[in-house]
Amino acid sequence: MNTYERDVMCVSVAPIVSLRLGNSIDPNGIKEGDDVYFDCHVKANPPSTKLTWYHNGLTLNLNSSARTMKSDNNLVLQRVTRNVAGRYACRATNSEGESFSNELSLRIKYAPGCRTERVMVIGASRGESMDVPCEVDADPPAKGFRWKFNNSGETIEIGPERYISNGTASVLRYTPVADLDYGTLSCWAMNGVGHQSVPCLFQMVAAGKPQSVHNCTVRNNTDGAVDVQCEPGYDGGLQQVFVLEVFAENLDSQVDGEALYRNMTDRTSPRFSLGKVALGVLYTARMYAANAKGKSTAVTLPRFSFPSSENQMGKLRENSKKYDKRLSLSISPMKNLNTPLT
């Protein structure tokens, strides 16, 4: 009896890797709250010793608190949200090298939600028509919207003829004509996943131009810097900003006239610091408030300067007299700037 010996050749190769979704998962039907898993299929000799997962090109951190876990060659995503959508891949490593899988794109569908979560304040005068935009994020796009109006006395459903809509936004044309027309507008959207759970809110307020600032003061600090401070007036029902314009007139110049020295804006309060100003220059400061409806009447503050010579002091007195005649004011030139204007 002949005995044949067979030599078995073992070939070592780097891993061959492929990625696929779990067998029971429809890639076009995944929505927020579902569980998803990927299968990283690896052929390798010798067997792979390390498996790494990637999301949008970055190494994926696996932890149970983020509901992202690994089981053998599977990646498990529990109760998914829209934030985990994107591109996934895996990489297997053995002693012969490493290999990446194909990329799979994960789409997570979700019900509509407001693009911005804060309440939008919209100011309108009586009889003024305003376009109120309700913008949402949704996948698939929204297929319908509804609007309601609420004031302290009643809640009213707004008919669809009052607004136009597409897959991402609905725009309501709204015109308050009486006090009861000011209140809260609410907007909801719906798509193939479900209805929006929390509405987008818009607070309609009676609005106009802001009132002027008052109780203004120009003063110099101990380090020589100049501060200009006022108290704000009524904002007109809308968020307001404050603008300070400072004009300069060189006392040594033979030409009369002012040039814009500084233009400053503050979104929180009418308080400005000019820093240290140049010597021998006569300054005029004007401040006003502005909102979406326009700007207030500007308030002109007392002129100020730091004369560096007696010559310039005389020029300062002369220019101040001309200025006082133009404005019918009686403001003395100052070395000490702690001068209020009410």
From TrEMBL:
SMART domains in UniProt: IG, IGc2
Domain Ig-like: from-to ranges: 15-105, 112-199
PROSITE patterns per the UniProt record, alphabetical: IG_LIKE
Organism domain of life: Eukaryota
Cross-referenced InterPro entries: FN3_sf (IPR036116), Ig-like_dom (IPR007110), Ig-like_dom_sf (IPR036179), Ig-like_fold (IPR013783), Ig_sub (IPR003599), Ig_sub2 (IPR003598)
Protein known as: Ig-like domain-containing protein
Native species: Macrosiphum euphorbiae (potato aphid)
